[in-house]
User: What shape does this take?
Amino acid sequence: NGVTQFQPEIGFGGLNNFAIVGQPYGVFYGSTWKRDGSGNLLLDASGLPQVSSAASVVGNPYPKWLMNINNSFTYKGLTFSFLWDIRHGGDIWNGTEQSLNTKGKSAASADRNQTYGVAGVYDAGTPNAGQAHTTQLSAYDYFTYYKGQNGADESAVQDGSWIRLRSVGLSYRLDLTKGEKKFVFKYVELGLSARNLWLKTKYTGVDPETSLTGAGSNIKGFDYFNNPGTKSYFINLKFGI
Assistant: This one.
C-alpha cells in the first residue's frame, strides 16, 4: 500500500526502467532538461540549459505494435520467399553514442571547431527572464554536456522503430521421380538464403534490435557498447526420399 513506483532490476546509475502506476511497465525513468509550459528549454544566467532536479518518465522501450509480412511464391520447382519485420515505437537508450560524444570519439564530434546553437528562454530569477535566446556552444561543451553524459538522460533516448528485411530465400527443387530412370532420392533441392539484409531506422546506433541486459532480464532498451547484429548467408542442399 502506498507504493506508486518500483524498480524491478538495476540498470544504470542514472537512467533505469521502472514500474510506475499509470505508466506502461518498464518505462525509462531518468533526468530531463528543465522546460517551461510550452516545452522550451529553460536557460540559466549564462545561457546554458539546466538539468531538472526531479526524475521523470523519458521513454518506453516497448513498441506500440509489431507486424510481419511473410510470403512465398512457387513456380515450376522454383520458390522465392521473404519476411519483412516491422516495429513501430519502442525507445532505446543510446548510451554508446552518449559515451563516445563525451570522450570526443564519435563521428559527430570530430569537428572540434564547429559551434552548435541551443535555443531556449531564460529561466525565472535570471536577468533576462522569459526572453528567448540561442546559446552557441563549442563542440566540447555541446558533446560533453548537452549530448554527453554530463547532460540529461533524455538526450540519449531515441526512437527504436524499424523496417527490416528479416529473411529472403530462393530455392529450386528438381523432381527425380519423373522419367524412366529411377533414383534413390525423390528430389534434390538447392537453396540460397540470407538474414538481416536491409534495415531502415531513425536510430543512430548500430541496430535498435539490441539488449544489454539479455533476453531473460526484466528491463529492456539499453544500448551500451553492445555487439551489433549480423548479416547471415546460407547455402543448403536437400535430398528427399
